[in-house]
Amino acid sequence: MRNSIAMMNTKGGVGKSTLVLALAETISAFHGKNVLVIDSDAQASVSSMLMTVSNLYKLQSEGATIVDYLHATVLKGQTAEWHKFIVRNVSDVDDSRSVFLLPSDMQLTLLEREVSKENLHARLRTVIGELLTGVRKVFDVVLIDCPPGLSVLTESWLREADFHISPTKADYVSVCGLEVFRRFKALNPEMGFAQNMGVIINMKEPTSASDEEYHRWLESNQDNRCFMQPVPRMSALQDAANFHTQTRSYLAKYPGDAGKAMRALSEEVLSRMESAAKAPVATTDSVAVNA
Model pTM? Predict the structure, then answer.
C-alpha cells in the first residue's frame, strides 16, 4: 500500500506541523485509521503537540527517539527494531486513539552533520527506505513532518516516501518556497522522488483579497494539484498546537469551521491516496508556481 506522505515546503512558517497534527487526529477520529506521525524536525514541534513536554523529555533522555534509531542504524551500522521507538497513546483527543508517534529531538541536526561528515548519505537513504517499508505494512497512513530547508534527511524522506504534500500560505514568500522545492525536485530525476499529491493552501485569511489572488493563481496551474479545501487562519487551529493534559473531544479541539475544514481536507487526502494506489505512478509531476 502506498500510504507514506512527506509534508514539505522549503519555506518555514507555513503551519506545516500544526497541519500534520490536525490531519492525523482527524483521520483517526473520523476514518478509524491507524496513523503514524514521523517527526523529522529537530524542533520536535509535532512531538510536543502530541504529548506533554515532560514525557517528550523523558523519551529523549532515555534514547527513544528517531535520533537514537538513526544513530544506531546509520552511524553505528547496527540493527534496531523500529517499532520499539513508536509511541502509542499520544494526542489529547479522546476520539483519536489510533495516532502513533516516532518522536524527534534537537540532536537530529547533529546527527545529520555526522552523516555528512562520514559520507553516509546512501546508508541514510537505505535506512529510511527500510523504515518506510516496515511501517507501511502496519499503519494505514504515515505522515512525515519534514523541516523547512533541504537537509540530507529531508531528501531521503522525499525520495523514499510515496507522496509529498506541499502546504503553503497564500503569499509571495511562501509561494517562492514552492518554486525552490520544484527546482530541487527536477534535479537528478533518476534518483526517484515522491509523487506530488498536491498543494494545500494553509492559514488563508478569509477576508484577504491578496490571499484570494494568490490562491487562484496557484489553483490555475493544474500541475500544483491544489486541494479544493483551503485551511483558514483561525484561533482554534492555532490553539490546537497546545497539548492539554486532560483529554477532550475532537469537536472541542476543532470546533465549527475549523473541524469542518479539516474533515473535508482529510477526505481529500485519503481519496487521493486511494486513487493513486490504483493508478500508475506519475514520474513527471511537479510543484509549479508559474501561471
Answer: 0.93
DSSP 189: G
**Residues 102-142: pLDDT tens digits?**
999 999 999 999 999 999 999 999 999 999 999 999 999 99
Q: Check the CA dihedral 253-257-258-262 and report its sign.
A: positive
Helix boundaries (H) for 137-170? 152-160
The pLDDT tens digits for 20-56 are 999 999 999 999 999 999 999 999 999 999 999 999 9
Burial level of 88, CB count in 10 A (0-12/13-18/19+)?
exposed
SS3 content of the chain, % helix, strand, coil (to 5): 50, 10, 40
Grid cell locating 112: 545529520
Domains of the chain and CATH, by start:
4-277 (3.40.50.300)
